[in-house]
Amino acid sequence: MSDLDALYRELILDHSKHPQHFGLAEEQADSGHSGTSHQRNPVCGDEITLRAFVDGETVTDVQWEGRGCSISQASASMLSDLVAEEGLSRAETVTLIEGFREALRSRGQLELDEDVYGDAAALSGVSKFSARVKCAMLAWVALEDAIAKA
Amino acid sequence: MTSPTPTALPALDAAKLREDFPILHQQVNGHPLVYLDSGATSQRPLPVLDAERDFLEHANAAVHRGAHTLAAEATELFEDARATVAGFVGARPEQLVWTSGATMGLNLVAYSIGNASAGAGAPASAGLALRPGDEIVTTAIEHHANLLPWQELAARTGAVLRHIPAHDDGTLDMDAAADIIGERTRIVAFTHVSNVLGIVNPVADLVALAQRVGALTVMDACQSAPHLPLDLPALGVDLAVFSGHKMLGPYGVGGLYGRSDVLEAMPPFLTGGSMITTVTLERAEYLPPPQRFEAGTQPIGPAIGLAAAVRYLDAVGLDRIHAHEGMLAERMRAGLAEIPGVRLLGDAPGAERVGLWSFDVEGVHAHDAGQFLDARGIAVRVGHHCAAPLHARYGVTASVRASTALYNTLDDVDALLDAASGIRPYFGV
After folding, report:
1. What ipTM, to 2 d.p.?
2. Across B29-134, where does the E strand assignment appear?
3. Domain with B304 in it: what CATH number?
4. Which tens digits make up the pLDDT trace of B102-131?
5. How many structural domains are present in chain B?
6. Do residues B36 and B53 both lie within one domain?
7. Is B386 an active-site residue?
8. Is B53 on the interface with A (CB under 8 A)?
9. Which of A105, B15, B112, B288 can bridge B266 by disulfide, Cβ–Cβ 3.0-4.6 Å?
10. Which residues neighbour B211 within 8 Å (Cβ) at sequence distance 6 or greater?
11. Do A68 and B372 touch (CB under 8 A)?
């Protein structure tokens, strides 16, 4: 598989064309049960608005809207699938995000574990393309910020 | 302005010129490098690399101070470089201020006018002072470097910032310009050639509109200086800026051209060493231009490198470069227009252009398109190219830009066209 094909795995292109959990429920003020974060990539103007829902210590759901390249859109879609399915605690979610960041910054040295990261493990190939790491991180940074506010 | 290329001139031999650019002879991702990002930064020929190295090996010293031999030699080389670069844009040496680049040049002008507005340099500078309600006019197609300094200046002085809109085809709406540039207009700032659209703007018409109301003209010449014959005094602009690294020269050096009476009236922006006549603990008197605007140690080696760059451009001939790049642009336009889903930005029929095109690939984000091209060894720019309002005007957040220089060949263009036709199939759209 070429580096380009490793970057644009079929799974990534699928998610970018059919983004999961896309669309924010109508404008609502964040209460104690949700937090919203808006993030931009100033290089390309890509942006995402992500809302995390928290029940006590458990992150229960994620909704998002945004526009950008296939990597940033797929990453947001994969992340929301993962969070909605796993029912992780706040602390586990933060650990998940930190692990993702570490792998993405590893310049191809670390692979994401599919058992932990699900479809998002397909983003491991991004770490060889330093210019694209920000694209993949956008949604994860937004989630980090959103749960801190929730 | 630009005379048509005499048919007697032999065409530029880009394949031969490439021998002077070592960086171009390499493989990238298993393919020969196809460098189509000269709009962001150009590559440097050996004479430029040699000039800077030669200076550092034989004559390096601080200029305009010191009694020793190297200091005198460095000063001569530095001032000769000024004369050479000034001559390249049709100016006299004292009309050329060294800057670190075009962004610094534009900020220098904006901050100087801001200082004049606060009373600095009066009475000579009083004519430059802005008052609340005065208007600064720029365009909807500027690089952020020719927009943000004016936004900030307007905020500091209470002046109003207005914009000349662009047509769908990328040309400026000159009817609107005639309405917008009025009695309240004090500054008209515009780009000679947009770094996204590649169209040569109607400088003579913009200058005439500004002169009719006594407004100062400020021109961004970054994307014209290395691509077409440039005579700034003949164009009639009051001030103009360019960047060395976009015209085969080093990073960290650029030029600000000014009409002598305008520079004379401008108070300094940066203050410090090398720009004064007398200093007491309380106050200072400043040197005339250009030294008034050159506080601190200047980029001496880069300035000498830039002089070598403009000698290189002159030796090839700007008429020939303009014709060569125009030919590349035409081939690029024809090829890109045939690819399904590709939309060219600023496709004005018959417009005078430099050799660059920006385009949108329907259904594929610019970053993804650029990544695909990079895998074929093709270097293009993706994003908003520091012109976000322009992209908003044309309904996209980002685009792909392929920009040429004198060292690009038709093979480069054909490699781009071949690869670009594979973008949408690869991403399944």
Report:
1. 0.91
2. 31-32, 34-35, 96-99
3. 3.40.640.10
4. 999 999 999 999 999 999 999 999 999 999
5. 2
6. no
7. yes
8. no
9. B112
10. B217, B236
11. no
Task: Note down the domain range covering B364.
Answer: 14-45+317-422
Length of chain A measured in residues = 150
Would you call A71 an interface residue with chain B, using a CB distance cutoff of 8 Å? Answer: yes
The C-alpha of A103 sits at a distance from chain B's nearest C-alpha, in angstroms, of 21
Confidence tier at A65 by pLDDT (50, 70, 90): very high
Which contiguous run of DSSP H or E holds residue A133?
A: helix A133-149
**B197-243 pLDDT, tens digit each:** 999 999 999 999 999 999 999 999 999 999 999 999 999 999 999 99
Do residues B257 and B126 share a domain? yes
- Judged by DSSP in three states, A67 sits in strand
Q: Give the domains, in start order, of chain A with CATH numbers.
A: 3-149 (3.90.1010.10)
Q: Is the pTM of the predicted complex or chain greater than 0.80?
A: yes
Eight-class DSSP state of B138: E
Report if residue B97 sits inside a domain.
Answer: yes
CA-CA distance, B76 to B73, in Å (whole number)? Answer: 5
Instruction: Out of B384, B398, B428, name the one closest to residue A13 (CB).
Output: B428
Determine which of A12, A13, A69 to mutate to test the interface with B (most B C-beta atoms within 10 Å).
Answer: A69
Q: Could you tell me if residue B427 is inside a domain?
A: no
